[in-house]
Design a protein that fits this description.
Elements (H helix, E strand, L loop, with lengths): L1 E9 L16 H12 L3 E6 L7 E6 L2 E6 L7 E10 L3 H10 L7 E6 L3 E2 L9 E2 L1
Antiparallel strand pairs: 1-5, 1-6, 2-5, 3-4, 7-8
Amino acid sequence: MRYMLLIYGDESQIPQTPDGVAPEISAPWLEYTDWLLSRGMHESGERLALSSSATSVRVRDADRLITDGPFAETKEVLGGYYIVECANLDEALEAAGRCPGAMYGTVEVRPILGMPMPSAAGSGKSAG
C-alpha cells in the first residue's frame, strides 16, 4: 500500500540563509531517506518552498479568487512529503515515527487511493 507522509512544522524554527532560502538538507534527513531506501519503501519525496511563496486558488460563484500564501492560518505548515510503499499502516507509522520532522512538528500519514487517469485510448489506467 502506498502512503503519503505529510511533514508539518513551524517555519519560524527552520534556519534560513540571508536570502530567505532554506539551507542544504541536513544529515538527519539524508540518513532518514537512506533508511527508507534501504528498506525499499521510498518512492519519492520533496521539500517545499516556504509558505510565503505559496499562492492559493479558490473558485466561488464561478469567480477565481487568488490569494498570496497558504489558505489556512496556522503555525504549522506543510514543509514537505514522502511517498512510501509499505506492507501495512503499522509499517507506515514506523516510517513516520523515524522522520526527523516528527521530532519538532507533525507527520500526517495518509493512504494513497490513486485514481483512474483518462487517456485518448480510454485504457482506464490507474495512477498509483
